[in-house]
Fold Lrp/AsnC family transcriptional regulator.
Amino acid sequence: MKGRAKIDPIDLRIIELLSKNARMTYKELAEALGTTRQRISRRMEKLERMGVIQKYTVVPNFDLLGYSYVLLGITLKAGVSIDEAIGKLKEVKHVTIIQKALGTHNLVVHVVAPKDMKEIQAIIEEISKAVPGVEHMDVTFITETCKYELF
């Protein structure tokens, strides 16, 4: 049933609350929205079934964990299959997020790597060799996440 979802303001409010704290219980959501836990349960099942809510996750502080967080903006040569490139990127251990993009880059790739610059260089070289038809790759080191809110 994935596709264009019919959601209402209450669904949007649930998503907003969960984007700030994905650990909220159905009871806490119900209290915040002035409804029952059972109604929240039904709405959550609907949102998950429709594909509106795809995943519950955490946002780690990579610096405190001893890792570097790197964004790669990849521009492919004309005619190169983006889906083939994505398939290759999915096989690379340190790649955590792959996003199709419009604009300067065809793909935005998130990489979590050990802080050692030689290891980072090796990972970037592995990615550039694995992906067919890379025309250009921009590398950006994320030094701090100052705001992370979806709504």
User: Anything to note?
Assistant: The radius of gyration is 19 Å. The first strand starts at residue 67 and ends at 76. Strands lie at 67-76, 95-100, 107-114, 134-142. The helical segments are 9-20, 26-33, 37-50, 62-65, 82-90, 117-130.
